[in-house]
Amino acid sequence: MKKLGLTGGIGVGKTYVSKVFQQMGIPVFNADIEAKNCMAEDKELMQKVKTSFGENIYDNGVLQKEELAKVVFYNRERLAELNALVHPVVKQKFEDWCAEQSVELVMKEAAVLFESDAHLGLDAVICVSATEKVRIERVQKRDGSSVAEIKRRMDKQMSQSKKEELANFVIVNDGKKLLLPQLIKVLKEIA
Known about the structure:
single chain, 191 residues, alpha/beta, 5-stranded parallel sheet, two-stranded antiparallel ribbon, 9 helices, globular
């Protein structure tokens, strides 16, 4: 089984590209969604998060995302501490999920693929790319954030250019360049 990674900065359209891959018959594991699920359902992880960030991070078993975000968003050490708790659990979920698949190719979608070392053990990584202008427009449309807020979030992430440099393949998802021929070309090169 070959394992591919799919990543890119905020607003590049990772999820859209992953849905196209799914329509092409490639199962996709969304690590970002799985991380949220684990933080809401994995009792052992929930206890570790409470121990590190306080009992009030959960209210009647429900993660208080806004409270957690206040703690980790502007504090790299606290974010690293949270990631050190969550990423190993998500990594194991991915391995378990892969064992259940009966296909030759699977994909792991993750915003912080390189930052979390989740690219290790993958056969190749695809980075989805779009201009900053397109990315900002998409995020504004998606969640109504201000340009300043979006740029702050972008500044907290690994730069798009660095992700592209580390990736094996770059897919341009700017709404102008045809997507499907790019995806087919990547799949042919990987096969």
